[in-house]
Amino acid sequence: MKLPRFKANEEQKSWFFYDWANSAYITTIATVLYAPYLTSVAERAACGFVGDEDRKCTEHLSVLGLSVSAGSLVFYVVTLATVISAFILPIVGAIADRVQSKKTLMARLAWSGAAVAALMFFVTGTNWQLGAGLLVVANLFYAASIVVYDAILVEVAEPDERDRISSQGWAFGYLGGGLLLAVNLAIVTVKPFGLSTEMAVRISLLSAAIWWAYFTFIPYRGIKDREPRGIPPEEGVTLMQRSFGQLFRTLKELKNYPQTLLFLVAYLFYNDGIQTVIYSASVYGDKQLGFGTSILIATILIVQFVAFGGALIFGRLAARIGSHKTILGGLVVWIFVVCFGFFLPEKQILPFLLLAVAIGLVLGGTQALSRSFFSNLIPRGREAEYFSLYQACERGTSWLGTLVFGLVHQLTDSYRPAILALIAFFVIGGLLLWKLDPKKGIIEAGNQPPALV
User: Which are the contacts of 431, defined by CB distance < 8 A and separation ≥ 6?
Assistant: First the structure.
């Protein structure tokens, strides 16, 4: 398989392939298929049938003694997983700083997550409990592997090339996830060998797990092991004790870098909005707008390939006006995207596809540039620690958006006001980012500001 013509060495190309590998889980499972599938399983358990536009399921499930709307279950599950991740991910990053083989730690986390994702094939009938539990565990393994993946970026790329390598990794990931999604679109649409829609979806879930596990072998074999750097050995102290100690030191020292801390808070909010849009898109299209599974997959497929170009386009735009202004412009577009989504008419494909194109452009650009921009705000020699906190904000603390989305749906029995409520996350995040002084933050971190920030 030939890689796109990126200016990267062989080890960096191997690093790209983990984005290629794990994007299958994010696209096929987390974004497109599993949320509406688990919702249907929950509706079958609550009401004895799968809700649709003519016969909506209004019954609630009993979860640990709490009454939970079947349509909101998946968002509460994602919320639970991300809250747990908020405590786990920084510890994983601290451990990654000290292990002798980061690639082995990353691969083991990835293969564990892929094994859990493969078990989603067995979620059938009314067994929503199994489905919910697997989603929590798979999300935790995925997020933990990404923490180590980002820490490896510091080792495979020099400081002056990390922006480029980071953006290329994002773009390559969108391409890989999109290709598998195209295959799954064909499976769900054509239903070969007389497959039912449910079986086609389950096979697609299994294919994503296999893809994730198989392509993880490429970075595992292609990335070199390096000795932990800048961390003196501590006699008589366990790895876990050292990792907790590093986490507490990093959190304590954050007050010395107020602009870096401000960015992390801003990113927590606007990324929360982005992640909730990603998680809710398929459910919104299915349950609110009345589109079938094949249309939803095709739409997300458009998002994937547009996001591939969006990451590269935003990178070029940042080279002209600076990444700070480019990200702010992207957040303005996100606000318009959410507003447009609120007014989308049911069962009209063209407006839905236009929305997908807009999401793809800003999705790839804001995610790629956020990681690149943050790399300039990290104190030298502390990249892995701070990227752990970054991932905690990206994957581990992005819980409020899904919680708000689920609560608003439960209160209104509609996904439209739920999607509109997400505007607040982009507004708050954008205002905090606008307040940030990028050059001051870069100097505080001990780095040289580039010509454009």
Answer: none
pTM: predicted TM-score of the whole model, two decimal places = 0.79
Phi, psi of 135 (to 5 degrees): -65, -40
Give residue 145's pLDDT.
93
Q: Any idea what the Cα angle at residue 389 is, between residues 385 and 391, rounded to 5°?
A: 110
pLDDT digits (tens, 9 = 90+) for 148-207: 898 788 788 776 677 678 778 888 898 998 899 889 888 988 888 889 989 999 999 999
Q: At what angle do helices 258-283 and 349-375 cross, to 10 degrees?
A: 160
Fill in the amino acid letter for 412.
Answer: T
**Residue 230 tokens, joined:** 């800048």
Whole-number Å distance between alpha carbons of 50 and 53: 10
> pLDDT tens-digit profile of 360-373?
889 878 888 888 78
Residues 110 and 85: their CA atoms lie apart, in Å, by 15
| Number of other residues whose CB lies within 10 A of the CB of residue 412 | 12
Q: How confident is the model at residue 243 (pLDDT cuts 50, 70, 90)?
A: low
Place of tokens 């991740």: 85
Domains annotated for the chain, with CATH where assigned, are 14-50+60-229+260-444 (1.20.1250.20)
* DSSP-derived secondary structure letter, 191: -
Task: Kindly list the distances between the CA atom of residue 286 and the CA atoms of 75, 196, 415, in Å, as whole numbers in the listed order.
Answer: 15, 18, 11
Torsion, Cα of 166, 172, 173, 175 (10° steps): 150
